[in-house]
Design goal:
Chain B: It is found in: Nucleus. The complex is a heterodimer of chains A (404) and B (382). With 404 residues, chain A is α+β, with helices and mostly antiparallel strands. Chain A has 14 helices and nine strands. In chain B, 61% of the residues lie in helices and 3% in strands. Classes of the chains: A alpha+beta (404), B mainly alpha (382).
Amino acid sequence: MAVSPSVLYPASYEAKVTSTTIKPDANSSENSSYQQNQFPPSHSNNEREITEQLNDDVRLKYIKDKRLGEGTYAVVFLGHLRTKPASFVAIKKIKVNAEYKDGLSMDAIREVKYLQELSHPNIIALHDVFSSKDQNLNLVLEYLPRGDLEMLIKDTNIHYGAADVKAWMGMLARGVWFCHENFILHRDIKPNNLLIAADGEVKLADFGLARSFADPYLNMTHQVITRWYRPPELLFGARQYSGVVDIWSMGMVFAELLLRVPFVAGNTDLDQIAKICEAFGTPTEDNWPGVTKLPNYLPTDSSHVVPLQGRDFFLRQFPTAGPVGADLLMSMCTLDPKKRSTACRVLQHGWWSTEPKPTDKKNLPRKPDGIEKMGHDLTRRGGEVDDTTFKNAARQLNFSGARG
Amino acid sequence: MPPARDAMANRGDDDEVCPVCKSSRYLNPDMQFLINPECYHKMCESCVDRIFSSGPANCPVAGCHKTLRKARFRKQTFEDINVEREVDIRRRVMQILNRREEEFDSKRAWDDFLEQREEIIANLVHGTDVAKTEGDLQRYASENMRSIRANQAREAQEASSFKEQQTHEQELARLRREAAKQEYENERRELQASREDVLTRLAAGRPGDAAAIAREGKKVLLKKSSARRSEEDRIRQKQAALRNSDARKAGQAGTAADKADAAGDSGLIKGLKKIVTPEPEKPYDPFGGIIPNKRDYYTLRDYYPSSYLDPLRQDTRMQAGGYDLQEYYSRTLMEAFAGLGCFIDEEVAQRDPAGSLGASGSVATQGASLAAVSTAGTLDPS
């Protein structure tokens, strides 16, 4: 789709394009200064000509306006279609990274690979991909001007209720379910990866850590998902896991939406395990068969064993969710991944049909200046916590040696 | 004496005799004349009682064969029977054609409507095209029952709220007057008291203090009056604010009522605003319109025997990590069947029903669809 030759251009560009295709020899001398200084045309390789031509076609569809944000990994620009100045897009330019001198960074490849496949109202749309000068990769993404869920959670001036939480969770759950239905793990669900579109729709963004479901016996990395949202099986170093890792993250987002603070926020991985045990109960062979066999499992003091928390704990801790909501949260935060709800089961839960009805997306609470936030969110690398107080605690992801 | 007044005086004399029973005011001083809006023939109360008490009967006036009912007889409001009749017709038409200016798209449409209404009234008054006009009117009334009712209710409400507001304002004015009166009274009393005070002090004090005492008394008075003035200002401002908020509330109520109205399309009146009734709220669909677990060509089983996968079921580590074989089954089967049943030429035909594609185009798409199916068939399911 990115390099479809059947796109329409304004008349002036069409003329240029046709002239270049008819007379490839006159290409360099005749026209288009942009081509000349960016891609020195090589007449020897005709195939290369065509790919360059196609790339230029896509590149010239968009105009970069202003810079929205810059991170170590990418720069995000506000852009628009050349033919339609009112149609905004976000152009994410991936920086040529020192770590990946020989090729593209893993995050960029993952993002392009999976976003290209997914088309759903609750997943950020990837309109086009092109390369600009120095072979920089540019992703043309949907423009989501209303910031993210983290911003709404943190802003104490914004008040929201159970109906709003239900609407947001519904959109998140739909997005995650669609990913899983297409056999893609997102592996970095957290409030600041949930961007909000102009109409209030929540969109799952940042597929830099996504991968497709692994084949049997294939190892996946456990160093994914931002720590606070990482499920216990990943903290214990499981290498074969399933879609329910995303459900745990969803449960944490749900809890955070209700409490307006991260529910289990550990400073280190060990601290995170300790906090999870404290909050939900200590995993044992009884409530989670085989947990002791996991690579990074740490046997806990038998005096410190916290019993598995029941329904009344969730009801007490999250009174705003109501009894049915607490039940759903409990099913999302089950320690044993085998017993945790799948995305489909989450959507089949009775909570969605109980009162209060989810708020209509256009009536959801909003915050005016979300554009900057979007720029900021899109430049972040997957798995990083960008809270300054935890900057030192943030883990650098090490993909060398990891297969997925 | 001008002839017109003369004629009126004469008619006045005529009125004193009932045209039916010929009894006159002279014989029966309490005699009252009644009319029926069917034919507007006048007769005295006793005639109405006599003729119509036992049910509907024909009008006793010679040549008039209208059937009249007693319930509809009433007193005449206007002296001129034609005016009386026009007012009646006007009232009836206005009750049916009770559209309001807000309901029209433009000022022009509203003016057209007003003109049309006047024309209908004039037709009925002067007896031109009566049958057709009446027919139109009845049809309109039956078609737009609901909006007519709604507008009537709104009018009644407006009238009552106007009355309420008026009484409210009167009450406020009365209170203001009373307060002012009270104020004046207080002031007078105080003045008197302070004067007396000064006098008694002057009487009691030494002659040298007279000037000082007088000055003091004046100062106290001045202070009091200025304090009172500022107090009055404050009250006035408060009241003004109250009045404004009242007015605003009334305005809001009006616009809210406008929106509640749902009007049908009428053939008679043009230029009405289209009123969109909001669609009934659909139940919340958590899946957002996509049917979960929909598989066209296969059903997913819980277990497929395989020497490759079976050891996995015994691997506690994989089980503890949550690896789900079901996901693998689902994915494998989906990939095996992906592309089956995709008929590109059908899809193209659906997308492009005009069939503008040439013969070569259809051949090409058919070829593509064949290719797609064949590749899908050869996909390795593992």
